[in-house]
Structures are given as structure tokens and as C-alpha cells.
Specification:
Helix content: 40-55%
Structural class: alpha+beta
Number of helices: 5
Shape: globular
Number of strands: 8
Order of helices and strands: EEHHEEEEEHHEH
Distance between the termini: 33 Å
Length: 147
């Protein structure tokens, strides 16, 4: 699974995490173990795109899972956390949460940074509002686990 670009296979860990979360929810509602197994495989492939040093999901891999784009946007970190809550052990959930927390250390309260560079620094630019959907669903998933 993954998006295929004209110049070669592209695997986006953030989408793997997002699709794993969506497919697992669907599989549970439909009582479809095949869907749930596929969701677990998507999650496992997404984990191949988590940079151990920075503890964040990178933007893109090649189809052989080598790094294609080592920049790490904010929204895949929310999807990593959501999927880890379904499939990961406590360590994986903590790792995803710690990776996401780095983006929330922003100058303005309630804001976030969007693009982490390979050295761990952030680009100084406005964060797009389109990430709010990802933030909201991650918050809702965390609330569901807490209750």
C-alpha cells in the first residue's frame, strides 16, 4: 500500500498510520479479521519510516523502505500516535507521543510547528490549518483511551 509516484514507488508512513487506524476501526465495526490484519501490516510498514534518532515519522520512503524524504511534517506524528494506540505496546505509544510533543513546543500556546528538518530543527514558517483535522482526531482517540 502507498501512493505511487511517476518517478518510482513512494511510501508515506503518515498515510500508512492513518489508513491503519481507519481500517482497524472499520474492521472492528464489520467484524472483519482480514481488514484488521491488513491494518496491522500497514502499521508495521509505517513503523519502518520512524527515525530512531528523532523519534518521528519521516515524510516519505522508497518502496524498498529506504528514506526518500527525511523531513518530518507534523500531521504524520498525530497519525503515528493514533495507530500506536491501537497496535503498539506501551513503549511505541510513548515514543509516538514524545515525537509529537516536539512539534507542540511552539512560540504561541495552542499552536504547533509543521516541518522538522533532518537535524531536528524546525523550519520557521506558519503551520497550515489543514493539520487541525489530524490534531482533533488524535485528541479524540486519546480521550477514548482515557475513559
Amino acid at each position: 500500500a502507498g501512493t505511487i509516484a511517476a518517478e518510482g514507488g513512494l511510501v508515506e508512513p503518515g498515510h500508512h498510520f492513518e489508513w491503519a487506524w481507519l481500517l482497524e476501526r472499520w474492521g472492528r465495526m464489520r467484524r472483519d479479521p482480514r481488514a484488521q490484519e491488513m491494518a496491522r501490516r500497514l502499521f508495521a510498514n509505517g513503523l519502518r519510516g520512524v527515525d530512531d534518532r528523532r523519534q518521528v515519522a519521516v515524510n516519505a520512503l522508497w518502496e524498498d523502505f529506504s528514506v526518500r524524504d527525511n523531513t518530518a511534517r507534523f500531521w504524520p506524528q498525530t497519525e503515528h500516535l493514533k495507530a500506536a494506540l491501537f497496535f503498539g505496546d506501551e513503549g511505541q505509544v510513548l515514543r509516538a507521543a514524545q515525537g509529537l510533543a516536539k512539534y507542540l513546543e511552539a512560540p504561541a500556546r495552542g499552536a504547533w510547528r509543521d516541518k522538522m528538518q533532518s537535524d531536528g530543527s524546525f523550519l520557521d514558517e506558519p503551520a497550515p490549518a489543514t493539520s487541525f483535522y489530524h490534531v482533533l482526531t488524535a485528541i479524540l482517540e486519546l480521550q477514548a483511551r482515557a475513559s
